[in-house]
Amino acid sequence: MEDRTDTEPVLLSKHAKNLLRFLNLLPARMASHDNTRSTIVFFAVCGLDVLNSLHLVPPQLRQDIIDWIYGGLVVPRDNEKNCGGFMGCRAMVPKTEDAEILECMRNYQWGHLAMTYTSLAVLVTLGDDLSRLDRKSIVDGVAAVQKPEGSFSACIDGSEDDMRFVYCAATICYMLDYWGDVNKETMFQFITRSLRYDYGFSQELEGEAHGGTTFCALAALHLSGQLHRLDATTVERMKRWLIFRQMDGFQGRPNKPVDTCYSFWIGASLCILNGFELTDYARNREFILSTQDKLIGGFAKWPQATPDPFHTYLGLCGLAFTGEPGLSPVNPSLNMSMAAYAHLQHLHEQWRSADGRGDEDISVSSAFKQQLHLSKGVEATSTTTTSNSPLISAQ
Ligand SMILES: [Zn+2]
């Protein structure tokens, strides 16, 4: 039977216009998200990048965004605890010259792993050279929130600790090309202990396997160069759990409704494991397009629901994995475009050259480099886990 939506267009320009709007104005209904505003900037900027539409961001706005991101950077002083990283909003940065107030507010400023990850991703995507960062203080902040069992808290002054922040920790260290005192071994142990009987990963030990968590676990293993430590049988069973999450779109757990964002969480997980080609691209696309808002652009969680930046960005990434025309290839582990990833690789090369470091520690980077070459139509020449990713062959 002919797929009715197969020829339905992805409304690229409407999605770009929708995301651009969030860079200029946060609607009142999203006011409660103000304390995580950098994540909204991340969805909008990275979404525009995947849409090949970053040129729509005027140069002054682009610079304003970069400056705003840096305005949330916390660099600890010598006598302070390791609280380096980025904050998600500027509520704790008062616009005053009053030294007493500034000193008082200092007690409430600390980096948050999710905000640090999204802030770095925005800077990289906008082409910043990260030269204003003290990379060590940020990674010291990451190491300071690692738990003895290998998990990570979001920030130094009390928060949840689970697989989401394991992922954020891995992305931060990978992007800064520095792992410092982060314990990769206990991180690996925490991740593998969270593998459940059905071969999905749970948010924390003894929890239920979940699609978003499984992405966090696999991407963290990939970015930390530890994916190869999973044996082949385990990987095949993980693929099975992931593939069985497809109904038309993807669900996050068995017996749950499908949701646009899982086209990314599950899709990216399968890309990392080299199994995305086993999914039904047409039905995935059909579901994602059923959540497309034809009037104002954007994708929603479900059909007829209100679109939001989160589902818009992840819906676009899910479509990018299937090779949708007009969309840029997406790096599944870092959750950013391959163009942004290429810029990051360039920065790494510069840092390594300045540090006098060789290429001995770039195994993960090499795998990604190969994906980049493949995306340009160059044949695969290696058999490493990610080298012949279906992500690229599909595009
Ligand atoms: Zn969702």
Q: If you had to describe this structure to a student in words, what would you say it looks like?
A:
The protein has 395 residues and is mostly helical. It has one domain: Glycosyltransferase. It is built from 16 helices and 4 strands. The protein has helices spanning 12-24, 37-50, 59-70, 99-106, 113-125, 135-144, 163-176, 184-193, 211-223, 232-243, 262-272, 281-290, 309-321, 338-355, 363-375, 390-393, and strands at residues 73-74, 85-86, 330-331, 336-337. The strands form 2 sheets. Strands 1-2 form a two-stranded antiparallel sheet. Strands 3-4 form a two-stranded antiparallel sheet. Helix 1 packs antiparallel against helix 2, helix 2 runs parallel beside helix 5 (113-125) and helix 11 (262-272) runs parallel beside helix 13 (309-321). The longest helix has 18 residues, at 338-355. Mean pLDDT is 89; it is low at 1-5 and 360-395. The structure holds zinc ion.
In short:
This protein is 48% helix and 2% strand. The chain is mainly alpha-helical.
